[in-house]
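Run: sequence + N-(aminocarbonyl)-beta-alanine -> complex structure.
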Amino acid sequence: MPLLIRNGEIITADSRTRADIFCEGETITRIGADLEAPPGTQVVDAAGKYVFPGFIDPHVHITLPFMGTFAKDTYETGSKAALVGGTTTLIEMCCPSRADDALAGFDHWMAQASRKSACDFTFHMGATRFDSATKSELREIVRRGVSSFKIFLAYKGAFGIDDTELYGVLKLAKELGVIVTAHCENETLVVERQMELIAAGKTDPGWHHESRPPQVEAEGVHHLMTFAELTGASTYIVHLSCKEALREAIAARGRGVDVSIETLIQYLVLDKTWAERPGFEGAKFVMSPPLRDASNQAVLWGALRGGLIQTVATDHAPFDFAGQKRMGISDFTKIPNGIPSLEERVNLLYTHGVKAGRIDLHTLVNVASTQVAKIFDMYPRKGAIQPGADADLVVFDPDYQGVISAKTQHMNVDYSAFEGWKIEGRPSVVTVRGKIAARDGKFVGDPTRGLFVKRTPSRA
Ligand code: URP
Ligand code: ZN
Ligand code: ZN
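>> structure
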C-alpha cells in the first residue's frame, strides 16, 4: 500500500520545506505540494509536525557478552525500543571473544538479528584478534557487506588488541577502504589504577571515573591517531567524552589524519555526580569512558554545533540494576559497563539540544542520522529525504510533553538512567521502508521486517 505523509515540515541536515512525501514500495518516490493520494493510499496527517529522515544509532550493543554476563536486549526488544524512539537503523558491533573466529562471530551475530529485528541493522565487525586467519576472514566479511571494523584499546584480556594487532588491522582497513571505529582508553593505566583504588578500599561505583580519568582517554586517542597517521587508515572515535580527548583528535585532524568523532547522549546530559550517588545507585551510571565533570558538556555541545564532532550515539548496553549491576556491589571494577539509552537518544537530544537552544533542528538531523549514513556508507539510501531514498521517516510531534520511566520503556532492562525526566517532543509516526512501525510511543509494526543493510567500503 502506498504511503502519503501530508503537510509536514520536512527537516533535513540542510533544508526546511513544507511538502508532502509520497512513498511507493519501500522508497520515497515524490516530494511536493498537494500530492494526490491514489485509492488505497495510507495517509498520515503531519500538519504541525516535523518530518525527519529515520534516525540511525551508530553504536549499539544488543547481545553483548561482557564482563561475565550478557547485555539484556534481544533484537526483538531492542529493535522495538529503537523504533519507538525514532531510530530506524542501528549499527551493532559483532563482538567475538579473542578465542572465537571472526567469521563464526559474524554468522552468530547475523543469526541473532536476521528475521528477528523490526528495524534495519548493520554491523561494525569487531577485530578482537588479528592474525593471518582473521585477516582473510575480515576480507570475506567485507565482501558480505560490512564496511567498518571495531577495535578496543581497552578491556585487557577481553576484547582489547595489542599494538602489533592494531597496526595490522589499520593496514588492512586502509587496503580495503574500510573505516575503523575505536574505543580509546589506555588499558594499562586503567588496570593499574583500578588495582590501586580497590587496594585502598575505594570500591564504590563513584570511584569508577577515578580509574579512567580524562588523561587515560586522551592517551588512547593520541595512540590511535599516531597509528592512523602512519597507516593512512580512516578512523572513527567512539564515545568521546571529554575535552582532553577531543583536543587530541582535533590536533590529529590538523595533521591530516582522517578521523570522525562520536559522542554519546549520556555525556551530553549526565555528569559524574550521577555515578557518585549514595548507596549502590551510582552503578546505574557506570560506563566507560566514565561520565565526566559537568564542564565537559558545554564543550561537547559546542563541538556538535561547530561540526567538530560528527555523530551522537548511545553505546546502548543494558544490564539490569537488580541483578547484573550488583555483580560489582563490593568492587566497582566488576559492575557491567553501560547506560541503556537506545529508546531515548532522539527525545533527549531534542529536549536538551534543540528545545534548550544548544543545537538547531538541522544539527539534530545531521548528527543523529545524515552524518552517520555518510560516514558508514549508507547515504543517500539512509539519512536523506529525497526520491530514491528508503522511506524511513519520523513524523515528530514537537508539542508532546512526557516523562521517561522504566515502567513504560521497551528496552529490556529494569531501570532508566533518566527516570522521571521530562521530555518535550517525541516521534508520533515512524516508518521503515514505507511501512508504519511505531505510533505515539507504541510499536505497531511487523517485528521481523528489519533487513541487514549491506555496505560497500568507500575509502579505497
Ligand atoms: O560502558 C560501555 N561503554 N559499555 C559497552 C562496551 C563499550 O565499551 O562499548
Ligand atoms: Zn567502548
Ligand atoms: Zn560500545
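>> summary
The chain has a mean pLDDT of 97. The first strand starts at residue 3 and ends at 11.
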